[in-house]
Amino acid sequence: MNDTSTTVDSEIGEAVKSFILTEFLPGENPSELGEDTPLITGKILDSIAALKLVGFLEARFGFEVEAHEADFDNLDSIGRIVRFVHSKLRPTHG
Amino acid sequence: MAEIRLLHELLWRAAEAWPAQVALEEEGGATITYDELAALADEAGEALRRLGVRRGDRVAVRVPKSIDAVAAIFAAMKVGAAYLPLDPSAPAERNRAIVRDARVSAAVLERRSADPLRKDLGEAAVLTLDGVGRGDGLRKALAEGPRPGCPPALDAADVHPGEPAYILYTSGSTGPPKGVMISHAAALSFVDWASQTFRPECADRFSSHAPLHFDLSVFDLYVAIRHGARVVLIGEATGKEPLRLAALIAERRISVWYSVPSVLALLVGYGKLARRSYPDLRLVLFAGEVFPVVPLRALQSLWPAPRYFNLYGPTETNVCTAFEIPPTIPENRARPYPIGRACSHLRTIVVDASGRPVPAGSEGELCVSGPAVMLGYWNRPEETERAFLETAPGERWYRTGDVVVENAEGEYEFLGRRDRMVKRRGYRVELGEIEAALHRHPAVREVAVIALPDDVDGLRVKAFLGLSREPRPSMIELKRFCGEILPGYMIPDVFAFADALPRTSTGKVDYPRLEADERRGSMVERCSSA
Predict the structure, then answer these.
(1) Position B528 confidence tier, pLDDT thresholds 50, 70, 90
(2) Which of A26, A48, A67 faces B243 most closely, judged by CB atoms?
(3) Which runs of consecutive H residues, i.e. helices, occur in B209-241?
(4) I need a labelling partner for B44 at 20 to 30 A (CA). Which of B119, B131, B280, B301 fits?
């Protein structure tokens, strides 16, 4: 179970990382962008970039992000985004 | 009724005419009526007076947009001072530079722990608000503030309409921002023009999307207040979230909307506007940058009822030309709409490089004259001098720096800039200010910043850096570094490293070559990815 979710998380993480590098940090060394690198507070994502990221997540993973979800808690790092996507994909754990 | 001579008198006039009408509505739903707002501003003015604020002073206001903030700016004007709104979310360093430059005598601040601005206020009196909203933060500060018996109040009456009502800081070409001084008479001439043009009524509900340090707020507040209308204050966070904005416009029954085009483009792209109806919306005004036709047409199809106006004008004149967008935008139109004709309270001319007027159909710089033009830049006599063109003794024209052409219909079309200023999300950005910030990075030896047109975002800002030492800083570090000095809209999108920047024969950075190389590069990219 754990192994499966780790694989899923790393797939989500890679997709998100690749999107951020291509769209907002073209030319950056990928190793500089870690799972905990602050995206919003670190000024990598501004409000418009965050909307683009949300649009990417919706299209790629097939869910809708509500207004109250597109916030710092869910988007400020790749780690947070992965957890958020995961929670959207598996809304219940029962 | 006596003629209104000073900008703040609009509030006390409204309090007489519509005492029980709601003046301001906050996002959370709190409201204040005109007589309550006037009373709160009166009380705050009295406190400022006791703190020693005098006619001719400057009062900084760093308070998130709220009933408290609006009452504070009226209070400052009431005692004869000019208000100086600071961007609460700007890097501390930028606000510190502004406060030092402006030499304010007082500041109204929302309390922050370890506030770096305090150091720069020197002897200035400070009114500190613990929390903001509903006017409660201001009321509490007033209750705890200096009591009567402090230094006697000088009467601030007899303020002349030609004295500054407010000072707005905009991006400066060599680094530090500069303060545009607008007099009471200038602001009122704009408010009068807007009143005659848009005929607001006390049943209207105005959006207040722009922050108070942005000149669009002058329309939102004072035009609404002049007519006893309701101003719906939109906070910074919601202002950037299209889904929440769309809900707010529908639920708060906004009838007059005013913002930069990029916010409207966001609403079209991400706001899911079709989910709701907007029966009250009758006017959509936009200004600050070019509105590309594709999102404008999409907006019009989602909101078919309101009239749309493209307003144009720098902070130095506020709106000086206007153009009404036709009710249906033809499918084949790709070119942005004109900025229109001179507003009735101003005159405009188009001049060549030597300052001589050019005939209609020829390109040139747009210059503006009339009562709405700024007094000058605070404490910058030379820059003020350079900003004006004198065509005859006493005939002074503000040089906008914008290159326009008058078309066959007599409307001005905006073509571009004659200097290195660009517009991002409606904000003025001097590329030189970004360069000055990057120069402060310890690894940076030389820097050149250019702006490139972008199909999706309108504009992309790219910084070229020559380094004085290894290792090369990461882009992530450079973005964070810029974010500590510059507002978010000034942070470059892309960084590139160069051994040496291209130079002209006189040793200056060869910007045209950098731009041409970039255009060629992006063409190569497009061709190779096709």
Answers:
(1) very low
(2) A67
(3) 216-218, 224-226, 236-239
(4) B119
